[in-house]
Amino acid sequence: MGHIKQHAEMDVDGAMLVEGMPGVGLVGKIATDHLVEEFDMELYGTVHCDSLAPISVYHEGERELLPPVRIYAAPDEDLVALQSDIPVNAAAVSEFADCLVGWLTDEDITPVFLSGLPAEKSGVPELFGISTGDAGGLLEELDIDLPPENGVVSGPTGAFLNEAGEVGLDGVGLVVQSNERFPDPEAARVLIEHGIGPLTGIEVDISELVDRAEEIRKQKEKLAEKMRQAKDEESSKAQPLRMYQ
């Protein structure tokens, strides 16, 4: 049975969560990793599901081993982040979505789910928003564009959105045009500047994403390669519905 193990006493009731599962262009992960670092967010809890890979991760300059899927919080900003260092296999998606959405509901947290849309970009990547529950009003207030065509969101992010819709949880999905083959810091910047920032009401310094774009691409390339090799169910992805017709 999936559960979230709390590691620190922090009040996250009523906060907004930004979800950073690996997917197309690693846009969600790059954006979420940036937020965790920028706001020096603290470890709030770890996610445990029987079907998640039973591995531990360690970080540069730190001795502590951690599970690969974690939740960080910045209570002063009413901000929570879901961070994952691994793709989630298809067998774990349903249990993971049920566990996470149940916790979000219990804590009255509004999720912001992130996904990349494979596209040949020209200029600034386009961003649009979708929603579950009554969260569509948030997108309307901020003039975040409607989807330009029918489409689907797959992988863990798609499962999260589906579960949120099933239980009536207010949630937002942000979809941004992304490079399908390589890490895309520019698309992650658009997510933060035009989506996450306005939705959460926080100001985020994105200069690091701009100045270190090439370095970030190189750092994330190994994970991006793993995502390219993974099954579609393991990679969060938005794509036109015609792909299924």
Q: How many β-strand stretches?
A: 10
CATH topology descriptor: Rossmann fold
* Run of helices and strands: EEHEEEHEEHEHEHHHE
Largest sheet report: 8 strands, mixed
CATH level-four homologous superfamily name: PAC-like subunit
Helix content: 25-40%
Distance between the termini: 35 Å
Supply the number of helical segments.
7
**What general form does the structure show?**
globular
CATH-derived architecture: 3-Layer(aba) Sandwich
CATH class: Alpha Beta
Low-confidence stretches: none
Biased composition (Basic and acidic residues): 221-236
Protein name: Proteasome assembly chaperone family protein
InterPro entries: Proteasome_assmbl_chaperone_2, PSMG2_sf
Region (Disordered): 221-245
Layout of helices and strands:
Layout: E1 3-6, E2 16-20, H1 27-38, E3 42-48, E4 69-74, E5 79-84, H2 90-106, E6 110-118, E7 127-132, H3 136-141, E8 151-154, H4 155-167, E9 171-178, H5 185-200, H6 207-211, H7 213-229, E10 237-240
Parallel strand pairs: 2-5, 2-6, 6-9
Antiparallel strand pairs: 1-3, 3-4, 4-5, 7-9, 8-10
